[in-house]
Design goal:
The protein folds into two domains: about 110 residues, Alpha-Beta Plaits, CATH 3.30.70; about 150 residues, Vaccinia Virus protein VP39 (Rossmann fold, 3-Layer(aba) Sandwich). About 30% of the residues lie in helices and about 25% in strands. The chain contains nine helices and 14 strands. It is of the alpha/beta class. The radius of gyration is 19 Å and the shape is globular. It has a seven-stranded mixed sheet, with helices on both faces.
Length: about 325
């Protein structure tokens, strides 16, 4: 039995919304193919990745969000509903691009492997490397290798926002810090924090599937003694306080919970945040300042921004 792959043409700004639509429509998972997630290896900018330059040349100009559907009696209805929701999204958010839809059949024996071609080892900062299990990699002295099979719906480390967060963690996290990772997804930031010497890490996600995947990745990387994973909505029902909180989510959420988050960060502690489209960086910076944080660092790619801010002592 063949599967059907749906491919939506969008932009970096629209990728998360399209991915959510595909999952709500019944996709077995999603994969985002975005040129902006893969920096040009000919333009050094402090974040370099171990990729074949030809891979970048062959990537499409549009951002493509892939979803996989099992054909059946209900598939036609799913497709009709998806067309309607994409049309509504296009009316509301012109910046999300064409939102056109392509389809293709994927043989049952191949569909589970089709997304793996997008993933290769990626270096974040100086000594953190994210490596999928099917790739060979020889670490350099001092490297911490995060073994991560991204599955179909959770972060792989390729996304600029993940790389930016890991780079800031490497730069500012101190040995023994207590860390909270809000919206952990695959658990990659929590695992990175543990490998960088955190004494205790609490990883939180509202999605039970993300919690399951994060638990598996924490176990696979041998950091279960330092990383706890739990289901939760942001910091609701979290009594713990931390030296550093990291959140790779979206600008709206960062702006809304920056102020209440301060009570969970010890005086002098840090808040590292990303998932911020670059056009909204000043909005997030202003929200952090209004909440009483002091900016420590800000890093950017062409499409994305990340901040490190301190709660005053």
């Amino acid at each position: 039995m063949d599967w059907t792959e749906l491919i939506v043409h969008t932009t970096s700004a629209g990728a998360d919304a399209v991915s959510l639509l595909l999952m709500e429509a019944g996709s077995a998972g999603t994969m985002t193919e975005d040129r902006s997630d893969m920096p040009d290896p000919n333009k050094p900018h402090g974040i370099w990745e171990l990729i074949d330059p030809k891979m970048l040349e062959n990537m499409p100009e549009d951002v493509l969000v892939h979803g996989w559907f099992e054909p059946g009696d209900g598939f036609a209805r799913q497709l009709d509903q998806l067309f309607e929701k994409l049309a509504e999204l296009k009316r509301k958010y012109p910046a999300y691009g064409a939102l056109s839809l392509d389809t293709k059949a994927v043989p049952d024996e191949n569909w589970g492997e089709s997304w793996k071609r997008f993933y290769h080892p990626v270096r974040a900062g100086q000594h953190l490397v994210i490596k999928p299990s099917w790739e060979e990699f020889t670490p350099l002295p001092g490297d911490h290798v995060i073994h991560l099979d991204p599955g179909m719906a959770f972060g792989s480390g390729y996304h600029d926002t993940t790389v930016l967060c890991l780079s800031l963690l490497e730069k500012y996290q101190r040995p023994g810090d207590c860390v909270i990772d809000v919206g952990t997804g695959s658990g990659i930031l929590a695992i990175g924090a543990a490998m960088l010497g955190a004494g205790d890490v609490l990883a939180i996600d509202i999605d039970p599937d993300a919690v399951r995947v994060a638990l598996q990745n924490v176990e696979a990387n041998g950091v279960a003694d330092r990383v706890r994973v739990q289901k939760g909505n942001l910091l609701d029902r979290v009594d713990a306080v931390c030296d550093l909180c990291v959140a790779n989510i979206i600008a709206d959420v960062i702006c809304s919970f920056a102020a209440p988050l301060k009570e969970k960060i010890r005086p002098g502690g840090l808040f590292v945040c990303s998932g911020i489209v670059r056009e909204r960086a000043e909005e997030v910076r202003s929200a952090l300042q209004s909440a009483g944080y002091e900016e420590v660092d800000a890093v950017f790619t062409e499409e994305w921004a990340a901040f490190c801010a301190r709660r005053p002592a």
